[in-house]
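Ticket 4471: requesting a sanity check on a complex prediction with pyridoxal-5'-phosphate. Repro inputs:
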Amino acid sequence: MIPFNKPFLTGNEFKYIQEAVASGKISGDGMFTKKSHEFFENRYGFKKCLLTTSCTDALELAALLIDIAPGDEVILPSYTFVSTANAFVLRGAKLVFTDSGPDNPNMDVNAIEPLITSRTRAIVPVHYAGIACDMDVIMELANKYNLYVIEDAAQAIDSFYKGRPLGGIGHLGAFSFHETKNISSGEGGMLAINDDKFIKRAEIIREKGTNRSQYFRGEVDKYGWVEPGSSFLPSDLIAAFLFAQLERLDMIQQKRKALWDLYATELEPLRSIIQLPEIPGYATNNAHMFYIVCRNLDERTRLISLLKQHDILSVFHYLSLHESAYYKNKHDGRILQNADHYTECLLRLPMFFNLEFSEVNLICDLIKKFYN
Ligand SMILES: *Cc1c(COP(=O)(O)O)cnc(C)c1O
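Returned structure tokens:
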């Protein structure tokens, strides 16, 4: 069987977990958490990184940092994972959904400005499949209307916009190390803080609202409760696992990109029939995902079952949030035609480090046969 995803081990995960245990400190912010922070800060120039227990938590931390309160409005794509929305809904925000663009599932940046009101506080772009949203347009709007930009970079590790790392352009950027992402610690995440003014408070909120981090650096002589917070920091065991993966990031990315390129080359002849991923000139491809967009729901259903008959697991993706059971009645009723289209027609093909090139060839042959 060819699964949709299979976790990959570099071989050092257990060794580092053992080292963490031997160090005598396996709670948060231990040796491997520090190494992981340094890795990201050095490699991508993020001002400050903080590991979290998930991207979901990183987004919740971001919503707390920008003081989202009931009645605030947040603009985000409808075609995204629930966590992008939950972080803000939990603080009482009203969600204002944009449609996806016609060329890829990212938010249609031209649809944002008419949605901005006096209550708008933030724009939350999601870099779908690790392909950048047009960040210049988003940052210009944010400057013009004094809004925060929180990048949901869950899928966007090691991907760039005009040479700048995703997650490092908005005020805050949230990453995921969930099992399904390029780099994984099972569950895990990180907040990149790109605006200095958030650094101190982010450390405090992440540590139950205490100034514990400052205390451990010797900046204050006792620590205590300074504002409402939560516990967003992972155990150093998680960080140890993560660091083993980060060390092999280049190798992982190289293989994924080669698999992705093979899909793209093999399926190119179908471009007149189905929509294939296109990388805008301002973006890079981090090979997080290879997807195709079928012409209709029925076609996608038939293709999924054909692949399944050959023991290949392909999967559809989001049910757009404006159509979800929870938000349907709260949505303002605008029709989001492209988001609906991706909901019904987008199909993700197997993509993981240990996928064989011959398996990609097999999958592509079956898809080509289906369409010819
Ligand atoms: C995976 C993902 C998340 C959630 O990440 P977790 O680490 O599982 O919380 C959020 N947003 C997007 C776009 C994702 O793909």
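Notes from triage: The chain has a mean pLDDT of 97. Leaving this open until the requester confirms.
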